[in-house]
Amino acid sequence: MALETITEKKVLIKGNYAIANAAVMAGCQCYFGYPITPQSEIGEFMSGKMQELGRGYVSAESELAAINMVIGACSTGVKAMTSSSSCAVALMQEGLSYACTDELPVVLISVMRGGPGLGNIYPSQGDYNQTLKGGGNGDYKMIVLAPSNVQECFDLTYKAFYLAHKYKNPTVLLADGFLGQMMEPVEMKEYPYPEIDNSAWCLTGAKGRDGRVIRSYGPLAEDRCEFLENLFGKYKQIEENEVEWEEHNTEDADILLVSFGSTSRNVRTAAKICAEKGLKVGTLRPITLFPFPNKRLAELAQKVKKIITVEVNMGQMVNDVKLAVNGKVPVELIHKGVGTPPSPEEIVSQIEELV
Amino acid sequence: MATQVFKIPETFRKDFKYTFCPGCDHGVAIRLVAEVLEELGLRENAIVAASIGCSVTIYDFLNIDALEAPHGRAMAEATGIKRARPDKFVFTYQGDGDFASIGLAESLHAALRGEKISAICINNTTFGMTGGQLGPTTMVGQVTTTSPTGRNLEYYGYPIKIAEHIALCEGTAFSARVSLDSVANIRKAKQAIKKAFEVQIHGLGLGFVEILSSCPTNWKMTPAQAHERVRNEMCNIFKPGIYKDVTEGLK
Amino acid sequence: MEKDFIIAGFGGQGVLLAGEVLANGFMLDNKNVTWYPSYGAEMRGGTVNCTVVAADEEVSAVQKSAADFIIVLNQASFDKFTSKVRKGGTIIVNSSLAKIQKLRNDINYVFAPITEIAQEKLGNIKMSNILALGIVSKVSKLISIQTLEKALDNVIPPNKKNLIPKNIEALKLGYEYDLLAV
Fold first, then answer.
1. pLDDT per residue over B43-57, tens digit each?
2. Of A97-106, A282-291, B12-21, B153-162, which gets the smallest average pLDDT?
3. C24 interfaces chain A, CB cutoff of 8 Å
4. Which of C33, C37, C64 sits opposite A185 (nearest CB)?
5. A269 to C60: CB separation less than 8 angstroms, yes or no
């Protein structure tokens, strides 16, 4: 399904295909992956397309192998990626910790499904913590982008490759089964970002120079402290430069609804229903989950009376919202454990209970 | 007239410090790798995927590009490097624990896929860096810190014969086991490493060498005793030889 | 304008494809549109359905409590989705595979023996799904069959383009079906 071409006209495709097309068009040179629902279309598309284009493709023996193949490919400076879902992304956490410490431009497409454990294949937002708080060891952060429609699945995949290379930092496109399986018209424009020069650090064979070592082993405590300070200096830069969010009707809102990804679609509709009922409701949707729009949330906390986060999990992002507003206003949670997001009507009735 | 009989290969880093225990064979193995890289003109085109364990320090010795892989994942990372840059010479340098315990899936699948990479595996029958625990190649009866009365079959089962397993994979072009217990065997080892590198250059598939190696510290032996053990015990169980060579008969 | 459609039937009736054609049609008419399938355990054995939401503004919520137009191609879907038709909305029922029965009086019913027409006039019951879209076009007045013809070309892969004329015939048969016959 779906061509890989730059077209003037829109094409109706699934989120998973939008992601795969964007990756190919961004110049992704290698794809390594292992199947798991609900993102298998990505690997299926890549298997044919990458071979057709003479690029790298491996049906990896496991997600452990897949993420480490991506690390290997990225160490040579090329664009490379894997895609997976929840319980299988769990297997990649070791590799992601290494990739952050090695400062490699790994791109991971994480299409969330129900958990914990095997869970089920319905959509979910249960891996907010897995992605943002790290399942791997040590202090590290990944850049995390959260699309809410199929066009954004495409556009933010481009952006994921760009930011990963710009900051030499693993970057995750955090989608969910809802977005992966949904079809919407997509405009497939050309990759809009500049190519990043990786020649100063990538492994190419030590021609006319000393051998470069990409390593995470730091035997001396002092050196390690300095390394971590620098690493977190980079994260601070990312927070200053790259935070992105979308907000509606926040100017005179009494209630602010915060949600990310596919859930924010139902939240927008719920907010419209609330407005019809005379409630002053604004919405904020973080597009980057790291960096998180902390400053903007703190500003809005000065104006609104209540913040409500809506999530398809047991309440994960709500903790970051609480940190951002630091007790200034009450922060409540509307949630559903797993599945498609709560319907706008359900959200509205819960808002009415809370206010 | 003085004749130079030994020199440090150019491929070594100028500032390297010898960090292995006295009598350990890692030093010899790394020197052989360096010599072969030089003889085949590969230094400036090589990328090594280093592993976890004593073998990790290869990047402190060799002045070549290196990527340090998580424990067991060197073959996956080497696969990624080679698929991204097929023009590069890519090899791994791993211990038996890394290659054949935690990384067995990666190793076998790289061999089955016929990855055009080379792999060197040091088999010293133990997890050396962590203090001599039982590993996948610990011999039946061998005492380690986690087999205090010796490896018995009831609790631990059998050790793996790595070179034979890799030879069984259809994507393998060359698989051999060598030992470093004598000058003659060191020469044979170098020949095997060279062959394992050449099959990659010719695009024939995976080139693999298992190197039987001493670990005097963890075996609690002198270097001489340790090499006796390699010769008399290990070579009886892990028989040196060439287990697969697709270039045989080719010219 | 924002209109919700659900197309439902059993596996093999081509309901997902029909939804894809409909969604492509709305895209060609420059509407915002979202297609979403039922997936998961429901996919095997039971009923299959997909939702298509077409709107002038950005499509936000996809899965709502009710839909404006629901097309059911078998009895199980008829049973399941009758209650989901929005008040004043329409349910299009394949009466070849579902009993003619009106349980609600606040919605419009359209009954058509879709499978039988496909068999008799086209010699292929697999055309039922596209034939149903012809009826949707006529009943909803939201999309023309000319647009749906173009949409078919978007959806049918290059190696099956020879099937397009037959599909267009199915669309027309659906469109021209005399709704007052039942």
1. 999 999 999 999 999
2. B12-21
3. yes
4. C33
5. yes
Chain A residue nearest residue C53, CA to CA: A184
pLDDT above 70: residue B69: yes
Do A136 and A160 reside in the same domain of the chain?
yes
Query: Considering A217, A240, A263, which residue would you say is the last residue of a domain?
Result: A240
Residue A287 near residue A245, CB atoms below 8 Å: yes
B85 contacts A69? CB cut-off 8 A: no
Q: Are A109 and A66 in contact (CB under 8 A)?
A: no
Interchain contact, A70 vs B109, CB within 8 Å: no
Chains that touch A (3 or more CB pairs under 8 A): B, C
> Residue A35: which region, alpha, beta or left (left: phi > 0; alpha: psi -120 to 50)?
beta
Q: Are residues A235 and A315 in the same domain?
A: no
**pLDDT tens-digit profile of B83-121?**
999 999 999 999 999 999 999 999 999 999 999 999 999
Full-model pTM: 0.95
Q: So what's the pLDDT on residue A1?
A: 47
Q: Which two tokens stand for residue A106?
A: 């790994």
CB contact under 8 A, C61 and A184: no
Q: Parallel, antiparallel, or unpaired: how do β-strands B172-179 and B206-212 relate?
A: parallel
Q: Are residues A142 and A104 in the same domain?
A: yes
Parallel, antiparallel or unpaired: strands B46-50 and B65-68: parallel
CA atoms of C55 and C71, how far apart (whole Å): 19
**B205 min Cα distance to partner chain A (Å):** 15
Distance in angstroms (rounded) separating the CA atoms of residues B215 and A81: 40
Is the pLDDT at B37 greater than 90, yes or no?
yes
Out of A240, A264, A284, pick the residue that ends a domain: A240
> A250 and A197, same structural domain?
no
Structural domains present in chain C? 2-181 (3.40.920.10)
Chain A CB contacts of B46 below 8 Å: 205-206
| Tens-digit pLDDT profile for residues A78-109 | 999 999 999 999 999 999 999 999 999 999 99
**Domains defined for chain B, CATH in brackets:** 26-245 (3.40.50.970)
- List, in order, residues 6 or more apart from A76 with CB less than 8 Å away: A202, A203, A204, B47, B81, B84, B85, B88
ipTM of the modeled complex: 0.95
Residues of chain C contacting A38 with CB distance shorter than 8 Å: 39
**pLDDT single digits (tens) A123-136:** 999 999 999 998 89
Cross-chain Cβ contact B65/A212 below 8 Å:
yes
Q: Do A156 and A268 belong together in one domain?
A: no
